[in-house]
Amino acid sequence: MSANSLPEGAAVWHSLEVDKALDLLDSNAESGLTPQEIQQRLQKYGPNELEETAGRSAWEILLDQFKNIMLLMLIGVALISGFLDVMRLQSGGLKPGEVPFKDTIAILAIVILNGILGYVQESRAEKALAALKKMTSPLVRVIRDTRFVEIAAKDLVPGDVMLLEAGMQIAADGRLIEQSNLQIRESALTGEAEAVNKQASLKLPEETSLGDRLNVVFQGTEVVQGRGKVLVTNTGMTTELGKIAAMLQAVESEPTPLQQRMTQLGNVLVTGSLILVAIVVIGGVIKDGGFKNIQELLEVSLSMAVAVVPEGLPAVITVTLALGTQRMVRQNALIRKLPAVETLGSVTTICSDKTGTLTQNKMVVQSVSTNNKTFRVTGEGYAPTGDFQLDGQKISLEESPEIPALSVACTICNDSVLQKEQGEWAILGDPTEGALLTLAGKAGIEKDQWNSKLPRVAEFPFSSERKRMSVITQVEGVATGEASSRGVDPAIAGFLESEPYLMFTKGSPELTLARSTQIHLGNYTGPLTEEHRQKILAENDLMASKGLRVLGFAYKPLVEIPPEGSDETSEQDLVWLGLVGMLDAPRPEVRAAVQECRDAGIRPIMITGDHQLTARAIATNLGIAQEGDRVLTGQELQRMTDQELEQNVDLVSIYARVSPEHKLRIVQALQRRGRFVAMTGDGVNDAPALKQADIGIAMGITGTDVSKEASDMVLLDDNFATIVSATKEGRVVYTNIRRFIKYILGSNIGEVLTIAAAPLIGLGGVPLTPLQILWMNLVTDGLPALALAVEPPEPDVMQRPPFSPRESIFARGLGSYIIRIGIIFAIITITLMLWAYQHTHAAGYQGDPETWKTMVFTTLCIAQMGHAIAIRSNNRLTIEMNPFSNIFVLAAVVVTTILQLMLVYVPPLRDFFGTHYLNMQELGVCIGFSALMFVWIEAEKIFLRIMGKKAV
Q1: Per the residue annotation, which of 353, 489, 682, 718 is the catalytic one?
Q2: What confidence score (pLDDT) does residue 168 get?
Q3: DSSP for residue 179
Q4: Closest by CA position to 171, among listed 150, 152, 195, 153
C-alpha cells in the first residue's frame, strides 16, 4: 500500500486486529518502515506537531484599541485643538505665559494611556495550546528498517513502530501490538484517575468510548508501569490531543457583557455628542448670521466633545475589576481574565463536576448492615470519630458486638494506611479502603494493633474477574500454643474454635454472599437461610439505590494456609459478616451554597462521569435535583441530536456517565437557550468546554495546566461554594460599575449642557477649556468613582435573579437617571453661571471679568462631591448609612476638594489651568450652589420612598 492510499485517520483502530492494522498501514511489527516510506509519509502527513492557527499580532491588538469610537473622537478633538493653537500662534492670539498645544498633548496622552490599558488587558495570549504542546514527548524510541533508533517525536509518521516503557510520555496515538503489564495514566485525557491496564489482544466494538479503548494508546498520556510495542496510527492534529487543539482553536471568544455594554455606551455618547455639536454650531451660525465666530464655536464644540467622553472610565473599570480579583483570591477564586470578574455577576447556570467540587473527594461510610440490623454511621471525612445509630438513636458497641467484628474484617482486608498529617487525617492508598479504616477507627479497631494480633501470611489479590480479595492471617493467641481461644481478642472470639488461621474476604456483595453458607450473629454463628439471603440482597439494593458503593464481608476459619492459586476452592463455605455502604460525601458547606444559588435565581447542574444512582443521590441530598428528576446519561446524550439536546437541557439537572467531550455540547445547548453558563473542568478534554462557556472554571488542585490555561477562573480549593462566593462578588462589582457610571455620566451631561448653553444664552467664550474638562473627568470624577468601586454589597445582592447579560448599560432606570441628574446639574450650574457672569461684569468689580468661568468650573467639581456621597445607596438616605462603611468615599471627597481649591489658590497651578482667584464670597456661592445637587438626590430618595417605589 502506498503512502497516498493510507487510511485517513478514522477512529476505528481499536476495532481492528493487530495484523489488520499493520496491513492497513503497510507496516511490519519487527522491522518497521523503510527510509523511503518514512520520507513519503512525512510529506503526506507533515510533522507530528500541534498546529496553531494564526492569531492577531501584538501590533494588531494595539491598533485595534484605537478603533474605539470614543478614542477616535478624542483623536479628532486633539487634532482640531492643535490646528486652532497653530492659528493662534500665527495670529499672535496667545495670552502672555500661555502654553500652546497643552490641550492637544493632554488629550493625546489620555488616548495613548487608554490604548495601552486596553492592550495590556487583551494581549494576554491564550496559552492553552502551549500547555497542550508540553504534553508531547520530545524524543521517542522506534523500530525503523529493522534497527532500534531514538528520534524526535515530531518525526513520527503513521506506520512507525514505537516502543514504550515506564515513565514515558506517549508521543502519538497508536494500536498496541504487544504489551507486558502495561499501565497508562489517561486522566488528563479522559478524566479517569486510575491508571488503565492495556491489552493488545483485544478487539473492541467501534462505538467503544475513549476511556474504554484498552488496546490503543494516546498522545500526551503517561506510561505508569510495564512496557509495550505500538503501531503509530495518528500523528499531529489527527490524534485525540490534536482534535482537542482543533476544538480549542475553533471556539471563538465572544465579547463579555461588560465589553458589549462599554461599546454600546461609547456609541450612544459619541452619537449624542455629535448631534449636540451640530446643534450648537448650526445654532451659533444662524444666530450670528454667518461664520464670523466660527473659531469660538469650534472651541465650544471641542470642549463639548471632551466633556462627553468619560476619559477616566476605562481606568476606573480596570482598577475596579483588579480590586475584585484581589477580593476573590482571598476567597480561593483566582481570576485569570479581568473582565471575568464582572461576567460572573451575570451567570444564570452553574454546571459543576461532582467529585471534589460538590463532594469531599473522600469516601465516607454512611451505612453498615449486619445481623439483620442497619446502622447509620456519622462523621466527616477520614477522621475516625463518629457514632453508630440505630433508628436515630446512638448505640453502644457492647450492645452490638457484630460491629467491632465487621470492623476487624475492614481493617485486615485492607492495604491502605490512615494517618494524621499536620492536624488532618489522610489516607495513603485507595480511598475506598481508607473509608473502611475510618469506619474501623470509629469502632475502636486500629490497624496497627490488629496487624500484630492477626499478621497476614497469605492473600488472594483482587481481580476484576473475581471482584473480591481475601487475606489469610495467623491467629496469634491460638497459633502460639495457648490452650484455648481465651487468648484471642473478644472482637473475634466467636469467629473460631481452635483453628490457627482466619481468612477475611471483601468484595462484590452478591458474589461474596453466593459463596457464604453461614452468618455471624453477634457472638455466635448460625446457618445462612434463604430468608437471610433475601434480606441481605434487599438491603444491598436499597443501599445501591441511594448511590452508595456497597461491599460485602465474610470470613472463614482455616486449619492450614491454602496453597497459592486455590482461591476458587478456598473461598467457599464462608461466614457472612455484613454490608458496608459508602459515598463520596457532599462537602458540608455546599448544601447552603446550592440554596444560595436558588435564592439568587441561579440554576445548579451536576455533570459527572459517575454512576447515575450515585449522581442522583448526591444531587438530591444537596438540593440540586428533586426526587424523581430525570438523569441524562452519556449514552443517551450521544444518541441525541443538537436540537433534541437543546429541548431537554432546561429539564435536566443531572448528567451521569458523561465523558468530558459531552460537556461542550451541553454548554452550547444551554447557550442557545439564552443561558449564561459557568462550567467547571479539570482534564485536557474539558478545555474546549471551558473555553466555550461564558465563565470557564478550572480546578486548582486536580486541574491540568491545559484546563487552567483555557479557563477564566481557577478554584484554588476545588469547592463549589467558592463559585457561589465569586458569583456574589461579580454581582457586587457590576452594581458598583453601574453606580460609578451613573456618577460619572450624570456629571458629563451636566458639563455638556452647561458648555452648550454658554454661547446660546449670549455669554462670551467657552466656560470650560478642554484641559479643565480633562481635570474634572480624570480627577474630580475619577477619585470618587474609584472609592465607589469598593462600596460594600447591598444586603439583598443574592436574593434576586441575575440581571440579563444582554441588558443595556442604560437599563433599569440608569439612562433616565443620567439624563435627569445631568439636566439638574446643568440647571444648577447655568443658574450659577448667569449670576456669576453678571457679578464679574458688574460696574466696580475688582477682579478679572473672566472669573465667572472659574466659578462655573469650581461649582461643577464640588457639586460632584455631594453627588458621590449621595449616590452610595439607591434607596437609603445618607444619614441612614454608616459614613465609615466606605471610608474611601470620605477620603476621596476631602482629597479631591483640596486639589480643586489648589487649582484656584496656588499660582503655578492657576496659571497652567487658566483659572482665576476667587474671594470668600464667590467661593461660598459656589459651595452653596454645589450643595443643591446633594439635596436634590436625597429629596428624590424621599419622594420614591413616599411613592412606594424602589430605585434599582
Answers
A1: 353
A2: 86
A3: E
A4: 153
